[in-house]
Specification:
Blueprint (H helix, E strand, L loop, with lengths): L10 E5 L9 E7 L11 E7 L2 E5 L9 E6 L2 E2 L3 E2 L7 E7 L13 E7 L7 E6 L5 E2 L1 E7 L3 E5 L8 E7 L2 E2 L7 E2 L5 E7 L12 E7 L9 E5 L9 E2 L1 E7 L3 E5 L9 E6 L2 E2 L25
Antiparallel strand pairs: 1-4, 2-3, 2-5, 3-4, 5-6, 5-7, 8-9, 9-13, 10-11, 10-14, 12-13, 14-15, 14-16, 17-18, 18-22, 19-20, 19-23, 21-22, 23-24
């Protein structure tokens, strides 16, 4: 049979030759071709005729299954047939008060679905495409139906989960998605100055929380909100330089006062800061032409 449910119990009919007379006792060994580390229980079978026997599939996981019969002390050659159903995910839940994963990781995520096995060879990944982060300490907590893992440091929203059980991978599911906590900005500091020069290039420190692991790429924009998106300035070379709590940027060339700041981390926007920055006021030192003095 193909696509055996991982909980077992499916009736199998095995066809061949030289099985012996009806009611002869037989056993069947099974191994996974997709993950040799998976241990599958031996099946007890009943010979129906010299060419057929009936078996009941055990609990198991894996694909490209290999089978070997043992009858009267003699073993058959290994033969390939069937596979256990690949795992599938229906939903995911973050076990935290906010329902989101802090960017430093370490929270339990529950995954619900079908054909998740009993605990052998379970792994999970997640991210924008379902593969960017590898979760830790994955284990089956409800046979065939629920897996728990621990999140790792990261960023992003609406991240898709996939699982691998016995060497078989689930597909990306729209329902099995979780998010890291959105970034929060608390303060803005212009390093070594109180205002920005219009040429840009000054170091600006943005402090807050949930800003992502060390080295994470971040986008930061600033300006007067009432002037609209097209009038916002984009800081340059922004990167997390203190894990989860500080972003370092270079200011853009610009002018103006009353600029609030916002960061974009893994596609998630922070709040706008209450604190504002400003560029230095223009200074006229002289002019030339008609009416100039000196």
């Amino acid at each position: 049979a193909s696509q055996l449910p991982t909980l077992g119990g499916s009736a199998l009919e095995v066809v061949g030759d030289n099985f012996g007379p009806g009611s002869t006792f037989a056993t069947m060994s099974v191994r996974s071709g997709t993950d040799p580390s998976v241990v599958l229980p031996q099946m007890n079978c009943t010979v129906l005729s010299h060419s057929t026997m009936s078996c009941v599939a055990p609990e198991g996981v894996g694909g490209a299954l290999m089978w070997q019969a043992l009858i009267g002390g003699q073993r058959s050659e290994w033969f390939a047939a069937g596979e256990y159903a690949a795992p599938s995910l229906a939903s995911a839940r973050v076990v935290s008060e906010s329902g989101t994963m802090p960017t430093w990781g370490g929270v339990v995520v529950q995954l619900f679905g079908d054909n998740l096995g009993t605990g052998q060879s379970v792994r999970a990944r997640y991210g924008p495409t379902g593969s960017e982060y590898e979760a830790q300490s994955c284990r089956v907590v409800s046979a065939h139906a629920q897996v728990e893992c621990v999140s790792v440091p990261g960023v992003g929203g609406a991240l898709a989960w996939t699982v691998s059980v016995g060497g078989q991978n689930s597909s990306v599911s729209g329902g099995a998605r979780t998010s890291y906590t959105a970034p929060v900005l608390q303060s803005v500091t212009i390093l070594g100055a109180t205002e920005l020069v219009t040429e840009g290039g000054q170091t600006v420190l943005l402090r807050g929380s949930q800003l992502g692991p060390l080295g994470s790429a971040v986008q930061a924009q600033y300006g007067r909100v009432e002037q609209g998106p097209s009038r916002q300035l984009w800081a340059q070379s922004c990167v997390v330089d203190v894990a989860h709590s500080q972003v370092r940027c270079q200011s853009a060339a610009g002018t103006g006062v009353g600029h609030t700041w916002e960061v974009l981390v893994g596609g998630q926007s922070s709040n706008r800061t209450e604190q504002t920055t400003k560029y230095a006021a223009p200074i006229v030192t002289s002019y030339t032409g008609i009416g100039a003095v000196g």
